[in-house]
Design goal:
The chain is of the alpha/beta class. The chain contains 17 helices and 32 strands.
Length: 595
């Protein structure tokens, strides 16, 4: 992996820069920039006080009494504003917003997010090491600080699914040698780590040997399993399932990346934290996945902070989690605090309820003002990401299960998200198994060209009755072509629309395409603007409401994108069949018995 030119945080230790900052702090030289008239939120004490802040280059040179200095090249009036450190998103995936890194940066920087920790495992699963290299290069020239992590689970469940690449410990170690890579990304193959699987043990040990972070995905882990996972060297989790789960993992000593993508849990989390009477230093905030319409309308980490406050968290707690605690987690003593000697990543908020950013400063430069970008955002050529869907057009029969007989007993995948095995009896008609009454079908086709692309079909229970079909190549984490539906004809129609578009998602009903969102870059992302992408994605949401009845919090649109996540406990449909990580087995055909 290529090294980046600017190696943070050591860039601040330039002797000339430090000497200039010292002189300005003494009053013997002017500041490059002076922010006056505002109030400062101290993310250590939680107190708000009047203070002016002087900057020299990328350094905060002085935090001093209001109006005690006026010597500066540039003076910024912060009257009525509240100055805080730039927000830090401790775990996210750019690809989930379906726009390029440049477009993502332009969306979140004006809202006060100055640093994100990006796990590019979506690009890694599709393009392998070249995908991660592309992500590093794309991040290099952006004014948004992107700390990349080395994808640890490509694929997420080896042997149970096939992705576009396979990252073993040697590949992970190569990524970790890059200064742009800050650690090992969420370790999702939990059973592999807990059971001492040599592959996963070697990957975790590569992270430990690098001295960098080893991040986790500890969904559902308790007691001995959680202890084993942590004993291996994993130190964080964002896959919380309840307030009790949060309490247990805080007590266990994990760093918590409290994520905004599961809003139905946030109020419960706030109640747990408020009950403690203090904010643990191991609480950080993250977005994880933000869909394009959500990003366009509500923002990124600023929206997580806003919702936490709405649910009853003190604003200073939300900001401490998003700044100082996050910086401590990342071992970045230059970030997370407005203090002399720290990096000049600053946000001037209008208030601490809506978190509207009047001004955003990154590395001592104004990058956004009043919600608009001022810094130049340089996109990277996306040509390496095209033509990633390597599939021929499919037929109706590809979405049917052939069988001889009159009746069949079939395995079903019961419930969205927290899946379990089930069974049903159904008819065989015209040589094909009829989907069980009240159920739906799911099909996954390998689309990376590493194996045959014939769809593997399964039956879903608890997903409602589908009046059409939905196809997507955004399908965590191997991102194979995944189709949900109630009839083979609409499933084939939706699938072929996506294949023809080079990736993306489509909704079909009664032989017509109701909505389509082309994602020709990796089958995950588009070169279009966030505004246009958000609009097209909103059309997909609307069309989905016509073909299936949602039942929150688990039977929701978002569940479609994680239905193939084979590393999570329970059965999941993959391109190999119905996979179960607990038993390590794959059921290639859901037909159990014919009679």
């Amino acid at each position: 992996m290529n090294a980046i030119a600017r190696q943070e945080p050591f860039d601040l230790n330039d002797p000339a820069l430090r000497a200039r900052a010292v002189a300005a702090a003494r009053g013997d030289a002017p500041f490059d920039m002076l922010i006056t008239g505002g109030r400062l939120l101290d993310t250590v004490t939680g107190l708000i006080r009047e203070a002016d802040v002087g900057l020299v280059g990328a350094l905060i040179a002085s935090v001093h009494a209001r109006a005690s200095r006026i010597d500066a090249v540039e003076i910024i009036d912060a009257t009525d504003g509240i100055l805080t450190p730039g927000l830090i998103d401790t775990h996210m995936h750019v690809e989930s917003s379906m726009v390029t890194p440049a477009e993502y940066a332009s969306a979140v920087l004006p809202r006060g997010v100055t640093t994100v920790v990006w796990d590019p495992h979506e690009f890694g699963n599709v393009h392998g090491l070249d995908g991660v290299r592309w992500a590093i290069e794309a991040a290099r020239a952006l004014p948004l600080r992107m700390i990349l992590l080395a994808p640890s689970c490509v694929p997420s469940a080896p042997g149970l699914e096939l992705a576009g690449a396979d990252f073993d410990a040697a590949v992970v170690a190569e990524m970790l040698r890059s200064p742009a890579v800050g650690g090992v990304a969420e370790v999702m193959n939990m059973r592999g780590v807990i059971d001492g699987d040599p592959r996963m043990s070697a990957i975790v040990n590569s992270g430990l040997a690098s001295g960098k972070l080893v991040c986790g995905h500890a969904r559902g882990l308790t007691d001995a399993d959680l202890n084993a996972f942590m004993a291996a060297g994993v130190t964080s989790d964002h896959e919380l399932t309840s307030g009790a789960d949060l309490s247990a993992k805080l007590s266990a000593g994990l760093t918590i990346e409290l994520r905004g993508s599961h809003d139905h849990l946030l109020q419960e989390f706030v109640e747990v934290l408020n009950g403690l009477g203090h904010l643990p230093p191991t609480i950080t905030l993250c977005t994880d996945d933000v869909f394009p319409d959500e990003l366009y309308q509500s923002g990124g980490l600023d929206d997580v902070a806003r919702r936490l406050v709405r649910y009853g968290m003190k604003p200073e707690w939300a900001l401490r989690a998003a700044t100082f605690n996050a910086a401590e987690r990342l071992k970045r003593s230059d970030l997370g605090l407005v203090a002399s000697g720290r990096r000049a990543d600053l946000v001037l908020f209008e208030d601490l309820t809506e978190f509207r950013a009047r001004l955003v400063i990154s590395d001592g430069r104004v990058v956004a003002r009043n919600g608009s970008m001022e810094a130049t955002v340089q996109p990277l050529d996306t040509a390496p990401l095209i033509k990633s869907v390597k599939l021929p057009l499919l037929t109706d029969d590809d979405f049917r299960i052939p069988a001889k007989g009159k009746r069949a007993r079939v395995a079903t995948i019961d419930r969205p998200r927290f899946t379990q095995w089930g069974e049903a009896e159904t008819d065989i008609r015209d040589g094909f198994v009829v989907p069980p009454v009240g159920g739906a079908m799911i099909a996954v086709a390998h689309r990376h060209g590493k194996a045959g692309g014939n769809p593997r079909n399964g039956f879903l229970s608890g997903w409602g009755e589908w009046r059409g079909a939905f196809c997507t190549t955004v399908s965590h984490d191997s991102h194979n072509l995944t189709v949900f539906g109630g009839n083979a004809a609409d499933m084939a129609l939706a699938a072929n629309a996506v294949i023809t578009a080079g990736g993306g998602m489509a909704v079909a009903k009664d032989g017509q395409i109701e909505a389509i969102l082309p994602l020709p870059l990796s089958g995950l992302v588009t070169d279009a603007s966030l505004k246009d992408t958000a609009s097209a994605f909103a059309d997909i949401r609307k069309a989905m409401g016509k073909i299936v009845d949602w039942k929150p919090p688990y039977r929701v649109f978002k569940a479609c994108f994680g239905a193939t996540l084979a590393c999570n406990a329970g059965p999941h449909q993959t391109d190999r069949g119905i996979a179960d990580v607990v038993t390590g087995k794959v059921l290639e055909d859901p037909v159990l018995e014919i009679f």
